[in-house]
């Protein structure tokens, strides 16, 4: 009788073990399903793609800004070089105007 009882206990243990494994598998599948739903709901992939696209656009804008700043620096140097002769000529014009006034008197 002891062997029938131990066979029964063994059978019950194996059934319990199988049911537990089934429930664990079901729970794992449910967790995976919840994770997929959360990912779809959060739209994290879309947000990441949008952020990457904006980052790339910002880099292009920064490069254009850098080029424009360099051009402005060149223009500033050229204007400075042109300012000196213009200033000198303005001073000479004032002197010339004074000479013309004195000649008219």
TrEMBL record:
Record bears the keyword Cell inner membrane: no
UniProt similarity note: Belongs to the BORCS7 family.
UniProt GO cellular component terms: BORC complex; lysosomal membrane
Residues forming coiled coils: none
UniProt source species: Laodelphax striatellus
Keywords: Lysosome, Membrane
UniProt-listed PANTHER family: BLOC-1-RELATED COMPLEX SUBUNIT 7, BLOC-1-RELATED COMPLEX SUBUNIT 7 BORSC7
Subcellular localization, as worded in the UniProt entry: Lysosome membrane
Annotated protein name in UniProt: BLOC-1-related complex subunit 7
């Amino acid at each position: 009788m002891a062997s029938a009882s131990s066979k029964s206990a063994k059978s019950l243990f194996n059934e319990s073990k199988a049911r537990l494994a089934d429930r664990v598998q079901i729970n794992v599948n449910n967790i995976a399903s919840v994770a997929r739903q959360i990912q779809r709901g959060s739209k994290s992939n879309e947000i990441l793609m949008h952020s990457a696209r904006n980052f790339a656009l910002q880099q292009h804008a920064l490069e254009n800004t850098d080029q424009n700043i360099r051009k402005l620096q060149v223009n500033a140097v050229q204007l400075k070089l042109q300012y000196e002769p213009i200033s000198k000529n303005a001073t000479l014009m004032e002197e010339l105007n004074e000479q013309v006034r004195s000649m008219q008197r």
